[in-house]
Amino acid sequence: MPNLQLEERISERFFDCVHCGLCLSQCPTYSELGDENDSPRGRIYLMRSLSEGRLQPSARVLEHLDLCLDCRACESACPSGVRYGSLIESMRGQLQDAGIIPAKTWAERLLDKFMFNIFPHPKKLSRWLWLARLGQAIGMNEFLHQSGLADLLPGPLAKMEAMLPPHIEPCDPMPQHTMPSGKVRARVALFRGCVSESIFGPTNRATLRVLLANDCEVFVPDAQGCCGAIHHHGGRHHDAEQMAKDNIDAFEALGDIDAVVTNVAGCGTMLKDYGELLYHDPVYAERARRFVAKMKDINEFLAALPIYPPTHPILAKVTYHEACHLCHGQQIRKQPRTLLQAIPGLDLVELAESEWCCGAAGTYNLTQPEMSARLAQRKLANIDETGADIVATANTGCLMQLMQHARAGSKPYRIVHPIDLLDVAYGNRDEVSHA
Question: Lower CB count within 10 Å: N or C terminus of the chain?
Fold first, then answer.
């Protein structure tokens, strides 16, 4: 039997779980399937049994673990403060290091190549997106769908194609240093991300403009790279650790700054986890803690600044979907609503099950498309009830997931980032372009 024992610092967290079951009603996969093995409590039992050598890592056990969204809703619900995320991610790392992975089809292996070797690298990803934009421009993508040829693509590849926004806008490189027109209130470094920069480049530029509108001096270090979340959640911790070190180096080189900000909830949770990731590293452990102390989600940073009141009205009914890694991973809930409510004319309506996962969960919608689609439909049904014109959400994965399923269902609302709405409200552009 392979050694899957977690390090003592992590394995002690198994004993924080008192098996009360309060997490069950908050777990999307348990809610959908009703199987204790697909609940946080059940998965903790499975992982502890694997770590202690009492259970073999069978295909069935791996299936229960792989079906976890890592949404961390259980952490918000847990009265004992169980750090479930660190347990599931550590076990995935042990399984990966031991070479215990399910058999994969050629399409799934190709998907792995994209996820781990292309998605985290904007320059590589941009070459593939150039082909996607060309296909959109000449109508090839539309032809594939109308003719039914798109349905012949293997599942993971069809899903990737379907997730792309209908109009991917290319952007010039962001300036590495920009001064505001007024007196500097804060010196800020912007984490631009990888998929977010490649696919939602206009939102990154909107973030820059909103920071400048609030008199922030903004740095965008060119040496920064992927946050490492895709690799970390996929059990490839050694790669994630190197990405963390590279980012710490890149942002430390800026000298004294007040905050590092990101507009992607998934990236923010990963970046704030660098202290845990590099806990044992003799060179980077303390540097990681200093980095984390300055790490802020853009909603968190602007609400605390606070923002200057926007003056351009947006006459629309807007609802807000909470990205899991913002509300559960970072416990940020009030701040995005505070920013949206500051926009004149905007009618913010609450969304039922706002904190319920939409099924994006990083690359989960690619690796677990069936469960992902079930959760997306549940989310859209709740959105329909609001009568909203616009859905705001602060995470790249959520944006792509909701856009895809809203298009497929011919929904009338647009899906946007809250920062895009703020950018309009400051008069930087006439409207939000996201579909």
Answer: N
